[in-house]
Description:
With 219 residues, this protein is of the alpha+beta class. It folds into 2 domains: 1-29 and 169-219; 31-167, Immunoglobulin-like. 33% of the residues lie in helices and 28% in strands. It is built from 2 helices and 11 strands, in the order H-E-E-E-E-E-E-E-E-E-E-E-H. The chain has helices at 5-27, 170-218, and strands at 32-35, 43-50, 59-65, 73-75, 81-87, 90-99, 105-112, 122-124, 127-131, 135-138, 155-157. Strand 9 and strand 10 (135-138) form a beta hairpin.
Amino acid sequence: MKLSTPVYAATALLGAGLLALSAPLAASAHVEVEPSSTAAGSYSLLTFSLGHGCDGSATTGITIDIPDTITSVTPTVNPGWDITPLTDGQVTYTAQSPLADGLRTTFVLSLQIPADAAVGDTLAFPVLQSCEIGETDWAEAVVDGEAEPDHPAPSLTVTKASGEAGHDHGAAAAAADDSAATGSAAGDDVLARVLGIGGLVVGAVGLVVAVAARRKNAA
Length: 219
């Protein structure tokens, strides 16, 4: 039985919607960092997000490389994780019990963005993710104009220094609230995409049913 043009259109519409939804979800598979501030000289809370293991294997620890220009880092306590503070340019979190693949957690570091960093400079924080079986090295550089690598290093871009930079530790906490709001907005965006795709699915199904009904009546 040949499909009519409306049926083809409905199928194409559904496929495009699912593709649009899958793109942002795939991007979220990386280990990413969300800074509360990127201004030169400012104090910032860097939130590293981890949402999967190594090819399905549970995570046992992460090691975060800190740029040489940053000499002081305060790791935030994570229940269920042992912490090795800044040593030889690295901060390490070790899981007391492996984190199963598919479960998400975050790690927060408090530090000061270098005051002499130029606007536009990139600060990379490579992360080595250790698992029960294997490991994943999130250390590949992201180059403007080139395709994103498979395992990009979490990074931030330095912005213009503010007048209060370097003097108000409380600003980092306030900025963290803004960061949380931004994360919430991002979640709302994904929800909106899901609802939008749901509407496309309903519309596509309705179109197919209508075509089938017309054919039945015509027969």
